[in-house]
Amino acid sequence: MNDQSTVAGVARIDVQAVQKEQRSLYKKREKIHPKRVSGTYRSLKRWIMIVTLGIYYVTPWLRWDRGPGAPDQAVLIDIPGRRFYFFFIEIWPQEVYYIAGLLIMAGIGLFFITSLVGRAWCGYACWQTVWTDLFIAVERWIEGDRAARIRLDKAPMSISKLSKRMSKFAIWLLISAGTGGAWIFYFADAPTLFVDLFTLDAAPIAYSTVGILTFTTFTLGGLMREQVCIYMCPWPRIQGAMMDEHSATVTYRASRGEPRGPIKKGRPQEGHGDCVDCNQCIARVPSVSISATDRSWSVSPVRSASTPAMTSWPRSAVRVA
Fold this sequence. Notes:
3-stranded antiparallel sheet, 12 helices, globular
């Protein structure tokens, strides 16, 4: 109900809110138990994880001969010497525009890949994805696949459950500490700093950096996981503006899959609507033939009047005569 009045020449409108309930901006995390899958894309994702992690952990240990008086570490950010070494490239502070140019090119490339093939960065190469996949692999190795992990979560605390959880957390902690240690190796000679860390001769900033990165890696990759993408990462808000109906992406139609469970005769299925996911809409797509000589089209009639209208036909329905 609106009450409009004018006080001292200013219009005032009292409006009652339609939505009275107060909703939280955040939702309590529901733990996700991904199941082990196989296939081309899963194998590709696994290999990308191995390659990217290998590059991150191994690169500080690579050597590159630059002559006498110069560091022989292939990739080194020498803050005291104000140099950045990348194999045969040496960048001085006044040449930082090279790095800015590389970052701009990387950003444009990311926009292009997203527009072309969808969430390739988020699904395969993002560091949150890579480390989360590594942590899930450890979790699956110790606690079992999806069904076993769900049973373990619901089971009361026991010696077996406690041992599995402690083993998992211990390996996660080692991975996290290795992640933080590998990062500081980019800023100093890796073999020397490695020895100094274990002999307690390293600088305090080295220990504090390793501690912070160990905590963040353990928390983000092991505990928060997809919450980082939902609440912390700005990229999902950006990539939505670069995708259209032609972008390759994973979508979900609730009307065809929820609520899950067998369909029982005589009982209405909430959420399914008229669709029971029989795949007949795919099997009965009109057959399209293309003549190789005159490129003429011929379309056979649809065999079922219940076939939904389709704006595009799958590639499998198109054949060359």
